[in-house]
Design goal:
Blueprint (H helix, E strand, L loop, with lengths): L17 H8 L2 H42 L4 E2 L18 E8 L5 E7 L5 E11 L4 E9 L19 E9 L4 H4 L11 E2 L4 H4 L11 E8 L32 H42 L9 H4 L1
Parallel strand pairs: 1-2, 3-7, 5-8
Antiparallel strand pairs: 2-4, 2-6, 3-4, 4-5, 6-8
Helix pairs in contact: 2-5
Length: 306
Amino acid sequence: MSGLRAPASGREGGTGSVDAVLRVLLTRRWIVLTVVFVAMVLVMYRLGLWQFHRYQQTNKDNHRISLAVHAPPVAIETLTRPGAKVPESERYRPVTVTGTYDPAHQFVVRRRTNSDGEIGFFLITPLVTSDGKAVLVNRGWVAPNNDDGAAFPALPKTPQGTVTLTGRLQPDETSALSGIRNVSGLPPRQYMLISSREQAANLPEPVLGGYLELVSAKPPLTRADSAQLVAGPDSDSQSTSDEAIVGKGVHLPYAIQWWLFAAMVPVGWGVLLRQDLKDRRKKAAAAKSAAAAPAEPEPVPTEQRS
């Protein structure tokens, strides 16, 4: 038994031993690679967390919007007043208002899309209530002029007499809220944003804060006095006034995707390390074979043969 040698321990052995792995990992190349891989995992994890937080916020917003959309209609003056700012919690609340349209002060809002993605205008007509206040009413989308898309478009007729409107309450548009840059110097009766504060300077009546996004009217609208109504947040359609459904449903898959990428990075690191060790083992074996091979005898000079 004394002629048998015990196998070398893992810490003493060849290129697959713990010592060999540590020697590889402590090389400059693998230190840099490991730092890069760890940074990739941290970045991907944070991106996944960011998308998950957006998913939670979207769910929270959608729940709030759902409650607002399905609330019973209330008189608009119970939620807003002249000069007031409509809180985000009241956005999309169904409201009603009765009055007469003021076509002399109606205007259009540029670069708005309908449910088919076509660019045109929103038609805004003030409605004057019996107590002398004005409400901006977004009557819907109208097509641009065929010859000049920036020219004032052809408008539907304005309903005459007293009407009762039902619609969604919306806060004043701002560049920060809508992402639309407000531009001055536009042609008459053309604007970039729907803003009661901006229009208060143009109307003789005090203007209620925010505006009404028209849903229905009594008496019912006719074809001649109808614009294309703006789709609501509970619709499959989307217009440029509907920011609630942008990105809905995509954040959770993105979060899972980033976390899967983060989980795959250590796997890739391990595969690279395994391949590197395998290559080093092959090189070591080749070097060992070359060292163990017998040396070729030196050739004998011709003079010594005779």
